[in-house]
Design a protein that fits this description.
It contains 16 helices and 14 strands. The protein is of the alpha/beta class. The protein has 4 domains: about 150 residues, no CATH class; about 45 residues, no CATH class; about 160 residues, Rossmann fold (3-Layer(aba) Sandwich), CATH 3.40.50; about 90 residues, Helicase, Ruva Protein, domain 3 (Orthogonal Bundle), CATH 1.10.8. The strands form 3 sheets. A 6-stranded antiparallel beta sheet has the order 3-4-5-8-7-6, covered by helices on one side. It has a 5-stranded parallel beta sheet with strand order 11-12-13-10-14. It has a 3-stranded mixed beta sheet with strand order 1-2-9, with helices on one face. α6 packs parallel to α8, α13 crosses α14 and α13 runs parallel beside α15. It is globular and about 105 Å long. The chain starts with 10 loop residues before the first strand and ends with a helix. Bound molecules: adenosine-5'-diphosphate (ADP) and magnesium ion. Magnesium ion binds next to α8. Adenosine-5'-diphosphate binds next to α8, α13 and α15.
């Protein structure tokens, strides 16, 4: 199973008014925009008088539900009096001017000095007369609408007070947004550029619309999306459903339905439970609040009980959608320590309070959804689940062959998006994820991450020692890393 060029961001190329536009991995751009604004086209160069275009995709909450917002600002503010402009002003179009211009071009120092000195004086005079700004930079400053015929996207067009910045703004409900909308908005932005720079101004130009430097963010912040999960298609689908029900309380209320309030995810370590919780928070657009065991368990008598009460007291006051994660829940509330010692008694007391608090938390605060994860479901008090406090139980199993292939594929895609740059290829074109999946039988997503981490480190060290020139990562090198992690059999 070898597919050449695998895992490179999928590009979509289209023509617009003579320009070639390449749209890289639009789906990822849209997914990322839910979490953090994504900036596009910042490094591109534009025809005069356009100096700069900032295109941002982000997400916002509207009374009707969450939306993706597309915003472009097209800036024409030019440096008021550039040397070139002054020279043009001074020299004009008469024979003497043309002669001087030729001398300057030929590098004649005297002609240059004369003209620039006159220019400096002229510039000062121009400033005094208030003529140093372009008189009427925009042909029309009427606000209006630009519309795309294919997907019917409409963008509002406005001008800032100085008349040198044009802004475009469009919104699409989050559940409806597609890559075609992004493409349409890029088209409208180019249309606005053409209105400023002239009909032929984009001919022969090439623009790449991609996540530029923003894709390096995930390494430092916790931006994980459901699209990054490999395998587990049913689990991901279920979490998407839950997110929809959370985001549409009015629909739930109309039908007297109740959205899930507590989720219990269970399965072996390293299968992605923590990752899924974070991704669900992002899918909902909720704040993520993880409650760690040390935050609760306190060696002092009564301390743990106070802590857990305080945590729920806070939770009742969250004013924004919040996902509370009790990760490795069994270590907080489990039967494991049901002995008579003080520590077990504390845990049992905590479990009691937890049950009580969970009873009416969601009624008290519809902004909250609770997720608990555990590697040991049998250790979790059954009554927590039976009572309906956790109304959704999700099994997160170890990945099968096909799922491991997908995990490899998605992780490698993520690394490519984050680290590859013109002139630097991280992975060979002909990676065989099928072979990797077969070789890594029995491993989890966490193991696969470790396999990649080791190869990355090896390559980086090689790079550091040799000063560059290191070949992209091959299937064989990855297979070596798989074997290394398996250890001697
Ligand atoms: N199905 C998966 N798809 C993609 N990445 C995964 C998957 N499972 C695990 N991972 C990777 O392994 C890391 C550790 O998984 P984690 O969510 O901590 O597992 P768990 O909480 O079940 O022990 C994750 O951050 C992610 O990078
Ligand atoms: Mg975990």
């Amino acid at each position: 199973m070898t597919d050449a060029g695998f895992a490179r961001p999928k590009g979509e190329t289209f023509e617009y008014a003579g320009a070639t536009v390449e749209l890289l991995d639009a789906a990822t751009v849209l997914a990322a925009a839910r979490v953090n604004p994504v900036e596009l086209l910042r490094r591109a160069t534009w025809p005069e008088p356009v100096q700069r275009v900032d295109l941002t995709v982000s997400s916002a909450d509207r009374p009707g539900g969450p939306v993706h917002t597309f915003a472009a600002s097209i800036s024409t503010a030019e440096e008021p009096l550039s040397k070139e402009r002054i020279r043009k002003l001074v020299l004009g179009n008469d024979p003497v001017g043309l002669l001087l211009a030729k001398r300057i071009e030929a590098g004649d120092p005297i002609a240059t000095r004369i003209v620039d000195n006159i220019g400096a004086a002229a510039a000062a005079a121009y400033k005094k007369l208030g003529l140093d700004r372009p008189a009427q930079p925009m042909t029309s400053r009427e606000p209006g609408t630009l519309a795309d015929a294919v997907v019917g996207l409409q963008a509002e067009l406005t001008y800032d007070e100085t008349g040198t910045v044009v802004r475009l703004h469009a919104e699409v409900p989050r559940d409806d947004v597609t890559p075609a909308h992004l493409q349409a908005f890029v088209g409208l932005t180019l249309q606005a550029v053409i209105e400023l720079a002239g009909p032929e101004s984009l001919t022969g130009r090439r623009y790449v619309v991609s996540r530029e430097n923003v894709s390096k963010v995930p390494a430092t912040t916790q931006t994980v999306t459901l699209d990054m999960v490999g395998g587990l298609a049913d689990v991901v689908a279920e979490l998407r459903q839950i997110a929809v029900s959370f985001r549409h309380p009015e629909a739930m209320a109309r039908w007297g339905a109740r959205r899930p309030q507590g989720l219990l995810m269970y399965g072996p370590p390293g299968t992605g439970k923590t990752m899924l919780s974070r991704a669900l928070a992002n899918e909902i657009g909720a704040d993520f609040r993880e409650i760690r065991t040390p935050e609760i368990l306190d060696k002092w008598l009564g301390g743990s009980e106070r802590n857990i009460k305080q945590i729920f007291r806070d939770a009742r006051r969250y004013r924004v959608p919040t996902l509370m994660l009790f990760d490795e829940f069994d270590s907080i509330i489990s039967y494991a320590g049901s002995g008579g010692d003080a520590a077990s008694q504390a845990i049992n007391a905590v479990a009691g309070i937890f049950k009580q608090e969970m009873n009416d938390l969601i009624e008290a605060n519809p902004n909250v959804i609770v997720v608990a994860t555990t590697n040991f479901p049998h250790r979790v008090d059954d009554s927590l689940i039976r009572s309906g406090r956790f109304d959704v139980k999700i099994s997160v199993p170890k990945p099968d062959d096909a799922s491991r292939a997908e995990i490899f594929r998605k992780m490698i895609q993520g690394l490519i998006a984050a680290h590859e740059a013109p002139g630097f290829q991280m992975f060979a074109d002909d990676l065989d994820v099928g072979a990797l999946a077969t070789a890594s039988h029995g491993m989890t997503g966490a193991d696969i991450k470790e396999i990649l981490r080791r190869v990355q480190l090896k390559k980086a060290m090689q790079d550091a020692r040799t000063g560059g020139r290191v070949d992209p990562i091959t299937t064989d090198e990855l297979l070596g890393s798989v074997r290394e992690l398996l250890g001697p059999r």
